Amino acid sequence: MNSEIVISVRELTKRFGDFTAVDRISFDVHRGEIFGFLGANGAGKTTAMRMLCGLSYPTAGSGSVAGFDVMREGEKIKRHIGYMSQRFSLYIDLTVWENMRLFAGIYGLNRRETEERASALLKRLNFEAERDTLVGSLPLGWKQKLSFAIATIHRPEVVFLDEPTGGVDPVTRRQFWELIYEAASEGTTIFVTTHYMDEAEYCSRVSIMVDGEVRALDTPARLKQQFAAESMDEVFRTLARGAQRGE
Predict the structure, then answer these.
(1) 3-state DSSP helix/strand/coil percent for the chain, to nearest 5?
(2) CA–CA separation, 80 and 63 (whole Å)
(3) What pLDDT shows up at residue 247?
(4) Torsions phi, psi of 133, nearest 5?
(5) What pLDDT is stored for residue 221 in this prediction?
(6) Cα angle 241-246-247, degrees, rounded to a multiple of 5
(7) Number of other CB atoms surrounding residue 61 within 10 Å
(8) Confidence label for 169 from pLDDT (cuts 50, 70 and 90)
(9) DSSP 133-170
(10) Distance between CA atoms of 195 and 24, rounded to whole angstroms?
(11) pTM of the predicted structure, to 2 decimals
(12) Tally of CA atoms within 13 A in the half-sphere of 234 that contains its CB
């Protein structure tokens, strides 16, 4: 694992009135790492991810993403990361190529960069025959892979994936994770939330949030050893059992 830190947070906190959604979390994420960010509904992981993506400012604490301050430089963070939400976010009434060109422009790529990178992504995905296909007519798994490709078209340092494989079949999930591994091997840092505990096993390290706090953070192997568990699902259930907050 590369020693360079690309995400760093210390005592990061988010309050809504009297409710503390994220309670003084601290961790570092390194370049090229696949960092799993887990937690049951209501644990605070979505609120934490929004702060790291520059979509919400913290109440207290400090942190940086790709070298930009989460307290003051949210707009700069947004321009230097990739983001893929659990809800499909491409334009279904545009073609594959039109979506690529649109988002490349939003990310600030010029015409030549757009042509080169979009063509390379089509080839990598084996989507060359689908260049002029309307995105709305693609199978769900193909849409998800295309979403990931477009989230990385501007070669960001960090890509945030919010439950990216929800609803897709096991074969497509495996293919999607191959794309994640490929991006990480090229130095992209992957920050991923998932409800599939078998996917937690694929991560370099995993953090587990409970009631707004990070209650565990280590490699999957060490977490299983620490909790005398045979699987990450067992580790997660052990920690989630003590949660006080619901959805």
Answers:
(1) 40, 25, 35
(2) 15
(3) 45
(4) -85, 135
(5) 97
(6) 130
(7) 19
(8) confident
(9) SBGGGS-HHHHHHHHHHHHTTT--SEEEEESTTTT--H
(10) 23
(11) 0.91
(12) 11
